[in-house]
Amino acid sequence: MTNTWYFYLFFAAALVFAGILGLLLRRNLIKLFIAIEVIAKGISLLLLGTGFAKDNILVAQTLVVTFIVVEVSLVATALALIINIYRQTKSLDVRKLTRLKG
Amino acid sequence: MIILFVALPLVVAGILPLVGKVSRRVVPDLLANAALLFLLVYAAVTGRHLIAGGPVLQQLSWFGEPVAIRLALDGFSLFMLLAIALVGLAACLFSIDYMEQYGAKANYYALFLVMVAGMNGLVLATDLFSVYLFMEVAAVASYALVAFGLGQDELEAAFKYLMLSVVATAFILASVAVIFGMTGSLEFAAVAKALQELNAGAALGVASAFFLMGFGLKAALVPFHAWLPDAHPSAPAPISAVLSGLLIKVSGIYAMTRIFLNVFGLTPALSTVLMSLGTLSMVVAAFLALGQKDIKRMLAYSSISQVGYIVLGIGIGTPLGIAGGLFHLFNHALAKGLLFLTSGSVQQATGTRNLDEMGGLAKRMPVTAATNLVGALSIVGVPPLNGFWSKLVIIIALIQAGHPVFAVIAVLTSVLTLWYFLLMQRKAFFGKLNEKWAAVKEAPFWMTAATVLLALLCVGIGILFSSTVTTWIQPAADVLADGVHAVIGSWGF
Amino acid sequence: MIVQTALLIGLVLFSVLAILLRDLLKSAISLAAASLLLGIIFFRMNAPYAGVFEISVVAGLITVLFILTIALTKAGDEVRESRAVNWVFPLFFIAFIIIDALVMKGLLRKIPALASGAETGTFGDVLWKGRTFDLVGQIAVILAGVFAVLALFRKRDKHD
């Protein structure tokens, strides 16, 4: 693989890691979801970077576009869940969501 | 027209909200169930003719121009389509009565059908990214369905399920990107061929590990199982049946198996990893099931355990092992679907899921108790029910392949399974009739009809197991046992 | 290359800020800024369609959804985050960056890849004719999202 791929992989990995770290450390439900958005950015950067490095930029773009559409659906559903949770428990603290034990 | 498997549920789902404004109950019920019935008949009757001569590859054309909807139907995908349609139909019939208490039936059926469309699409896809896409379709629908009751538990379960799933899909996509980078393509056939040429070694190992983490979470393999014991009990009963009976198998096991066996090729290292993870799930979940008080939670842990059996069987890699794993997948889908449906009947009649509060329900709900017993015995593996045969095949395959230790563990876990299911039977159905339930009635018509249908199938397949195996399971197993060759030659477009 | 690197560093910085900031609104805006930078990065990689999508949908639509949610859940500020986050996060993150850089340097030229053929057609061709099944999938996922939101926000006339 060309050096450009590793260049973009470096940044994509940083973003994904930042997102995962955020998921582990934050407590506000909305913040948790922002962390997930950061992970999504990392992944779209990785996909497009791969396409760019292989000169297959058109295919990579279709992948990223589809991925973004999926992301919108996910965000809408997740935020709908968060709003409902807030209405029920009047709180956005993930620590309060301990009624069920995994 | 294989595309119907995806297009039909989507179209019906699309018109359901409009229909729902006009008729709140009857027409949505009718439409949704008719759609699933059609899928079942199509898969069972026409499907077999189609694949009689080898895998069917369809490239659709739109107004004369070929359009790149490339779908492949081979033994394995047809097998999954049949399972999806069967359990889906049963759950849908069950929903006719059960979902009355939740309201918004048209919306519910719409989500249900989108989930079915997503699962069918995943099964028919020939391309790594399409697998991801349709997995997400089914997943988004399932998040809403888990939270459908809008109670605190359901919302919490759905949120955690969503969070964990998103991390899983991130890993899957990362792997897809690496594969794309290495091979320049996303289609199964092209990737398989390219990987044969490349000496990809470590990079392929990392990609496999990421796939394992991602699909393993979807399949609820230990240690990625944490979301399931919360999500499956909180969902409405027919959704729990579809989640445990179908979704974890389609998004998790099917995707993983298709990629590992037909695209990457099953290496000895991968085989060992799969078998170990399978055994881990099998044992750990069985122990955890023992201590549960909530009937649906016990069933949820049992699902994790049985998925372990399936992965163990498929992981062996020998034709017999794969056949055993797939047969168990089918049987578990039927039996676990049945058990979750009956638990829904019980929950509706008594208002509780706590086993300690139930007792002696068999006297008041004989049909439900009987079907529940059939489902339980099937999973435990009591002859002549279907579960017995699939477990037997897996154990024989383990011994034949030279893994006697695994075989012993599998047998011992069956004993554990027997124990916790007996506990469930005794506490819920047999024993003294708890005073509170003296006035409960048997479940409404459609709910009992659905459970009886599944129970009859469990018994029927158990008795007619050899013809079931040769007609449905063997073609699927052959495709997988062929490994990479099944895809390279015949799937090139 | 310099500009690209600067943009990428900016992207990572704004994303980390979005996670670390305490005020939700500032977080959302930081995320939008990060999306904007990502869109520009995409443009510079000869991927205008992805860039447009990233800016209009992620920096635009998703940010609006976030701000809507923040407005509807006004008590969000009361969640007391652990103070440890402020030093744990940068510590682990910087450690990761160092490991990341070393791994990348070590991996240079190690991963085999097939040379790929030239791409033909336009973006439209590739999307509509090359990956049509994905379009079916997109319709399906949009339907799923719409129905999900409808289901989660429905009026409850019966209590269960």
Q: Can you give a write-up of this model?
A:
The complex is a heterotrimer of chains A (about 100), B (about 500) and C (about 160). Chain A is mostly helical and about 100 residues long. Chain A has a single domain (about 5-95), classed as Helix Hairpins (Orthogonal Bundle). Chain A is about 80% helix and about 0% strand. In chain A, helix 2 (about 30-55) runs antiparallel to helix 3 (about 55-90). Chain A is elongated, with a radius of gyration of 17 Å. The mean pLDDT of chain A is about 90. With about 500 residues, chain B is mainly alpha-helical. Chain B has helices spanning about 5-20, 25-50, 75-100, 105-125, 130-145, 150-185, 190-195, 200-220, 230-235, 235-265, 270-290, 295-315, 320-350, 365-380, 385-400, 405-430, 445-465, 465-480, 485-490; strands spanning about 55-60, 65-75. Chain B has a two-stranded antiparallel ribbon with strand order 1-2. In chain B, helix 5 (about 130-145) packs antiparallel against helix 6 and helix 13 packs across helix 18. The radius of gyration of chain B is 21 Å and the shape is globular. Chain B starts with a helix and ends in a 5-residue tail after the last helix. The model of chain B has no long low-confidence stretch (mean pLDDT about 85). With about 160 residues, chain C is mostly helical. Chain C folds into two domains: about 1-75 and about 85-110, Four Helix Bundle (Hemerythrin (Met), subunit A) (Up-down Bundle), CATH 1.20.120.1200; about 120-160. Chain C is about 75% helix and about 0% strand. Chain C has six helices and no strands. The longest helix of chain C is centred in the middle third of the chain and has 25 residues, at about 50-70. Chain C is extended. The mean pLDDT of chain C is about 85.
Brief summary of the model shown:
With 102 residues, chain A is an all-alpha fold. Chain A is 79% helix and 0% strand.
Overall geometry of chain B comes to globular
Stated plainly, the CATH topology of chain A is called Helix Hairpins
Tally of alpha and pi helices of chain B: 19
- The best one-word shape of chain A is elongated
Straight-line N-to-C gap of chain B: 17 Å
> How many beta strands in the DSSP annotation of chain A?
0
Number of structurally distinct domains of chain A: 1
Q: Helicity level of chain A, as a percent range?
A: over 70%
Question: In total, how many beta strands of chain B?
Answer: 2
Kindly report how far apart the N and C termini of chain A lie: 41 Å
Name of the CATH class of chain A: Mainly Alpha
What is the domain total for the residues of chain B?
A: 1
> Tell me about the biggest sheet of chain A?
none
